[in-house]
Amino acid sequence: KAGVTQTPRYLIKTRGQQVTLSCSPISGHRSVSWYQQTPGQGLQFLFEYFSETQRNKGNFPGRFSGRQFSNSRSEMNVSTLELGDSALYLCASSTYTAGGQETQYFGPGTRLLVL
Amino acid sequence: AQKVTQAQTEISVVEKEDVTLDCVYETRDTTYYLFWYKQPPSGELVFLIRRNSFDEQNEISGRYSWNFQKSTSSFNFTITASQVVDSAVYFCALSRGDFGNEKLTFGTGTRLTIIP
Known about the structure:
The structure holds 2 protein chains of 2 kinds.
Chain A: E1 5-7, E2 10-13, E3 19-24, E4 31-38, E5 42-50, E6 53-57, E7 64-68, E8 74-78, E9 87-94, E10 96-97, E11 100-101, E12 105-106, E13 110-114
Parallel strand pairs in A: 2-13
Antiparallel strand pairs in A: 1-3, 3-8, 4-5, 4-9, 5-6, 7-8, 9-12, 9-13, 10-11
Chain B: E1 3-5, E2 10-14, E3 19-21, E4 24-26, E5 32-39, E6 46-52, E7 59-61, E8 64-69, E9 74-79, E10 88-96, E11 105-106, E12 110-115
Parallel strand pairs in B: 2-12
Antiparallel strand pairs in B: 1-4, 3-9, 5-6, 5-10, 7-8, 8-9, 10-11, 10-12
């Protein structure tokens, strides 16, 4: 079974631009979560999508948004980029069973550099 | 609010030594899940173990073992006979047990270096 894939792997943008990151979950997984990792703040939860609906959101400004498509693929968008948005963005997918959400499996991440 | 503390920022050991990574958590939930992930230099978080709050049995998987103690809110991870390939950053994480609220709260990570 293929793992979680994220594109692009690396990205360089300038302040004020916007960026869209993509995540394809493991086949059969309907939940996709996004996390931001920076040296200063560590790993922080951005949001989670399940069946095309945002179910949970972290404490990030409205410049960070996302969506999920009917095939469970998810995109994350950051508008008006700031230097502080430079980070590794990780996507995780999981499935649900009768016992609740199963383990979140992570993709390789997209490394975003804002200049 | 949930919190995970990994007090050890960096650990270095000589190859073949045993090493224990500490994890202390805080939660008011009675049902919760604990995780350990490994992050090699490539950046991907690799899942190691998931344990629910009702299962305090220790677990062993090859050279890896985990000690879960609710009385001290700890979920420690031991690597026996360490190898250079174990060098990575290790994260302990916590999630709530209620449906629809399973976001992971991570500790700050422990950077483990195995010296050949």
